[in-house]
Amino acid sequence: MSLTTEAAGKAGATDSADVVIVDLKPMWIAAGGLVAFYLFIRIYEQIYGWRAGLDSFAPEFQTYWLTMLWTEIPLELITGLGLAGYLWKTRTRDMAALSTREELRRWVCLAQWLVVYGIAIYFGASFFTEQDGTWHMTVIRDTDFTPSHIIEFYLSYPIYSIVGVGSFFYAKTRLPYFSKGYSLAFLILTIGPFMIIPNVGLNEWGHTFWFMEELFVAPLHWGFVFFGWMALAVFGVTAQILLNMKRLLGEDGVKAIID
User: Fold this and answer.
1) 203 FRET partner, CA 20 to 30 A, in 3, 35, 193, 213?
2) How would CATH label the architecture of 24-258?
3) At what angle do helices 234-258 and 100-121 cross, to 10 degrees?
4) pTM to 2 decimals?
5) Contact 250/11 with Cβ under 8 angstroms?
6) Which residues contact 144 (CB under 8 A, 6 or more apart)?
7) Burial class (CB in 10 A: 0-12, 13-18, 19+), 42
8) Are 80 and 158 in contact (CB under 8 A)?
9) pLDDT in tens, 120-171
């Protein structure tokens, strides 16, 4: 899908018309891949959670769950560092040379990053987190590394953190507005949900030390809510995106799109 309206022409009359401003294909591929991956993970959990995940001392627990744990952690670390390194290495060094159409295209790309980030946060901080509460009310755990935790804490949380940090690095290295400093809204949006991961350590320590009941309203769980709600800073980042797109399009461009 390309933006070919009068607004695009007014936004960059001297820019190359070959620049496709709106291309949703990468977003759909990323979103579809993420949903398909989590569907596979959920089916895997449904099959092997009960069959091999109730006794952490059993050989099948080592095969189906601890192997998964020790594989996903280094892969996520390598992926996160690799993505941040790639975005930094390929950064735009002369922001002043950026054409209007190209900058507008990058703002649209950033919005797509946030859509994928939102989907990733939903699975991590909502779907698998709520499921974990159900697991604990059903099964008495004998280890901190339950099948539910291996998926929730050590898979879904790092994945959304990678996407969030990737979106931040994309904006920082490719958009003049963010390259000049640091957006408070963007920092809250990425650092807040990421801090749920260190909070996991506090949570597991507390459950082990105090043998606390698995109630979502327990004070030990408040950190998850506090940092999770920081994802609402996406509205601040969205406002920055829309304001900058309005600046690039101009009043006539915005009216042309609305009409």
Assistant:
1) 35
2) Up-down Bundle (1.20)
3) 130
4) 0.89
5) yes
6) 204, 207, 208
7) middle
8) yes
9) 999 999 999 989 888 888 887 778 899 999 999 999 999 999 999 999 999 9
